[in-house]
Each structure stands twice: as C-alpha cells, then as structure tokens.
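**Protein of interest**
===
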Amino acid sequence: MSREFNVEASTEGESIDENTGKSHIRIKVYNDDFWVEEEKIGVFQFEDKSMDPQTAVRFMEVQGLRILWSYVREDLYSITAKMLEVPVMLPTIDVMQTVEKAK
C-alpha cells in the first residue's frame, strides 16, 4: 500500500444570528488504496454583537480552521493508527499564513 496521501480540506462559515456563528471543516485523506474523511462543526458565540453577517461568516471560516484543525488532526491520527501500519499525521499549520495564501 502506498504511503503517499492526498489531502483535501474545506471550511465553511455561517452566521446564525447577531452573536452566534457556525464553522464547518471537512478533511479527506486518500490514495489509490485508502480514504478517510473527517468533519467537525463548531458553534461559537461572539461578544461583539455589532458584527455584520458577511464579516461573521469570514470570521467563522478562519477561526473555525484555526480551532477545529487540531481536533481533526488528532481524530485522523487516532483512527488511522487502528487501521494502518503507519498512521496518517496531518501537519500542524500556520492558519493565518494558509488563509493569506488562499486569498
């Protein structure tokens, strides 16, 4: 089995109301022999109730990635440690640098 993996990741943000937002992260790790997907959703409260919905959505995309990535990373390692001889370890990331590159 190949040890080379492809990784696809996406995030979505949603404004629920004037002080609540939702972040959704999806990660897929795969190659020709194996694939696993992980999804996490986080619901967050804003202290600043003056944030407009568009800013809230962008905030949820960035902060959701920042906060939820470590949980997804740990889950994938734990799951693949039980399935594969060498578990999948996603890298740690500099979220702000990743977001800047994505722009």
About this structure: The chain has two helices and three strands. Helices lie at 53-83, 95-102. The mean pLDDT is 85.
